[in-house]
């Protein structure tokens, strides 16, 4: 009986601390996130029929989920556009596989942004985006026009994948400011490379991009989150220590009783 109590008490503590994670079924939002991920995986391997079915399934499940989860108008607008573009991509006869994957990835990242409580998946695009932009700067500095236009196109493609997610995850004014700066460089790309100091314009954008990713990382390091983790861990440790002490005390009492009986 004592051994049973030794294990039951910590489990009860965990139950009261984390009831939703132990008992609750997968939430409708998590289910939508899983469907979006499956659609992306099917698209990557060229199984477009399965991807189409999954995107249709997403639409059906979203109608159900929206009854239980309140989406803002901005969230609905961004998600609807991303989903429609994903459907068009898997049905397109003119897109190549990489274009389809990029479009469905963008939809997948939007859904993840809506479902993630902590660091969203779009932040994992930091390395490819920053690396490609560094190549843009290098080509501009060397005056290599062909390489400059090629790497700039590659950067824009990568940025466009995360751009819808940014609308949901960062302040509107910051998202608009970043879009404006990038649109300017795209529209006046030739003027930028032919200017006397193209590095100045490109360096300003690079700082904005780095601040974008650094800002998300800093938000995820919120001290209050660590306080919750530490507090929860302390409660569990104290509980286990108390149970161990009770067990030790009980065994000591039993030992004393046995010794008195022998005496």
Describe this structure in words.
It is built from twelve helices and no strands. By secondary structure, it is mostly helical. The chain has two domains: 27-117, no CATH class; 119-215, Four Helix Bundle (Hemerythrin (Met), subunit A) (Up-down Bundle), CATH 1.20.120. The longest helix is centred in the C-terminal third of the chain and has 40 residues, at 223-262. Pfam families: Spore_YpjB (PF09577). The chain crosses the membrane at residues 225-245. This is Sporulation protein YpjB.
Primary descriptors:
263 residues, mainly alpha, Four Helix Bundle (Hemerythrin (Met), subunit A), 12 helices, 85% helix, disordered N terminus
Largest sheet: none
CATH architecture of the largest domain: Up-down Bundle
Determine the CATH topology of the largest domain: Four Helix Bundle (Hemerythrin (Met), subunit A)
**DSSP helix fraction:** over 70%
Element order, helices and strands? Answer: HHHHHHHHHHHH
- Percent in strands: under 5%
Low-confidence stretches: 1-9, 11-24, 218-229
- The top-level CATH class of the largest domain is Mainly Alpha
* Number of helices in the DSSP assignment: 12
Number of domains: 2
Global structural class: mainly alpha
Cα separation of the termini: 27 Å
**Radius of gyration based on Cα positions:** 27 Å
């Amino acid at each position: 009986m004592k051994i049973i109590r030794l294990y039951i008490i910590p489990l009860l503590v965990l139950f009261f601390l984390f009831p939703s994670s132990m008992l609750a079924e997968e939430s409708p939002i998590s289910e939508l996130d899983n469907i979006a991920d499956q659609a992306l995986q099917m698209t990557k391997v060229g199984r477009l029929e399965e991807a189409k079915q999954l995107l249709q399934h997403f639409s059906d499940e979203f109608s159900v989920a929206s009854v239980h989860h309140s989406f803002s108008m901005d969230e609905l607008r961004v998600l609807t556009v991303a989903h429609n573009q994903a459907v068009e991509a898997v049905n397109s006869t003119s897109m190549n596989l990489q274009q389809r994957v990029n479009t469905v990835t963008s939809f997948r990242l939007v859904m993840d942004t809506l479902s993630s409580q902590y660091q969203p998946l779009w932040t994992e695009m930091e390395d490819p985006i920053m690396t490609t932009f560094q190549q843009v700067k290098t080509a501009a500095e060397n005056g290599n026009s062909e390489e400059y236009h090629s790497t700039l196109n590659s950067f824009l493609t990568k940025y466009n994948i995360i751009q819808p997610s940014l609308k949901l995850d960062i302040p509107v004014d910051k998202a608009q400011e970043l879009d404006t700066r990038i649109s300017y460089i795209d529209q006046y790309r030739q003027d930028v490379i032919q200017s006397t100091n193209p590095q100045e314009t490109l360096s300003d954008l690079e700082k904005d991009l780095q601040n974008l990713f650094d800002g998300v990382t800093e938000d995820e390091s919120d001290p209050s989150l660590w306080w919750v983790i530490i507090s929860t861990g302390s409660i569990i440790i104290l509980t286990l220590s108390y149970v161990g002490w009770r067990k030790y005390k009980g065994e000591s009492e039993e030992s004393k009783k046995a010794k008195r009986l022998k005496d």
